[in-house]
Structure formats: structure tokens, C-alpha cells
Amino acid sequence: MTDTLQIRFVVPPAFHDLPVLGTEEQVAEQLWEVVCEVLASEGDDLRAQWATVLAEMIPSMAEAGTIYAGLCLLDVEGRPSTASVVATLSPLGGLAAAQAVDGLRDGLSRARPQATVTELALPAGRAVAVIDGVSTTAGETTLVTSVIQVHLPLPNESQLLSLELSTPCAEDWELYSEVFAGIVRSVHLEFADLPLSDPSPDPFPAPVSAPAPEIESRIRAAFG
Questions:
Q1: How many CA atoms lie within 13 Å of 82's alpha carbon, on the beta-carbon side?
Q2: All residues at 6 or more sequence positions from 155 whose CB lies less than 8 Å from its CB, including other chains
Q3: What is the pTM of this model?
Q4: Spatial distance between the Cα atoms of 190 and 90, rounded to a whole number of angstroms
Q5: In the chain, what are the domain boundaries?
Q6: Over the stretch 68-99, which tens digit does the pLDDT of each residue have?
Q7: From residue 120, how far is each of 25, 49, 50 by CA, in Å?
């Protein structure tokens, strides 16, 4: 195929868009605006701390092919709750969608045996879902972040769209997983008459075993 694929999806307004493209000045200005929105009731000192932390993340996100990043800070039953959504594009390797899904599912199952990996049938096509927990230790404190990813091989056979939601608030996992399911189901793909970049090699190895049927059923139930 020689057309560029336009990708659209809908993120709820509770998520504030983070700038991942543009000059340093543009990113800094937009980032400060976002922090002021998210922390509207806080002082400049706390806003500056948040802006600094987020600014340190932006370059690596841009290098990783991030096309969207969003952050929300909610009040859930009187307590603060936060989550982030990230969408990235990476090389796929010129594989047909069916081959890519099989390779992704089985390669991720082998690479991340502790995670739940299964296949999804979405309006935009077949995809692979991964649910996992990531532990981060700082001193004597261990923070577990709940993560769900959906990897969708695009029909241009050149790119992989990966969407991820992460939250350190395990008690709100059901809320955020439902929100994320809505984002993933909203993905819309449309070709434009523009040239594609050259494909790169497939990043995943040959297939291994498939996930258990009961795990597949649980994830499919979450995504409808």
C-alpha cells in the first residue's frame, strides 16, 4: 500500500492533552498551561514541580513515537485519583494484519509471562491486549502501577498503533478500564493519498502458546 493512514480516537475530556511535539518553547508553554488546568487549586510551587517531572518525560516519549499523551486527576468519592493514556506508533515490518496479530500475541505471551495477554476483535480490526502490573521501588516504598495496553497492527502493513492506560490507583481500576475500552473502541482508521515511510523488521519472534480461554473471556467482557 502507498497511502498514509490517518488515525483518530476519542479521549474523554477528563484527560488533559500533554504536548509531545513542537519546539522546546512551544512544549514548555503548553505544558505549563496543562499543569495550571490540572492543578487549578494549587500554588505555583507544586505546579512547577509537576511541570518539571512531566518535562523530563516528554523527550523520551517523542523518541518512542508517541502521537498522543493525556493525564487526568480526578476526585473519586472524596479522594484523589489519577491515570494516564499514551498512544504510540512503531514499525511493524510489512506483515499482513493476521500474521502480525498472531506474532504479537504469542511474542508478548512469551516475553511477559506474568501478564495477561489475549486477542481482541475491535471495530478497527484485530488487536492484542496486555494487562500487567509494574512495580517501582523507591527506598522502602513500592508502588504498583496497573497497566493495560492494546496493540493494533495497522492495515498499511507498516505501523503498529499501541494504546496504553496506566494508573497507580488500583481501587479505581474498573473505572479506568471502562474508560480505556471506550477509547480503544473509538479508534477510526482512514487512508489519505500520501506516501508511507519504509517498513522495518518485525520486532517479535515466532508464535508460542495461546492464552487460556477464560482469560480471553474476561478481557473481551471488559471491551464489549
A1: 10
A2: 1, 5, 97, 125, 189
A3: 0.77
A4: 18
A5: 4-223
A6: 999 888 888 888 898 999 999 999 877 787 78
A7: 40, 39, 35
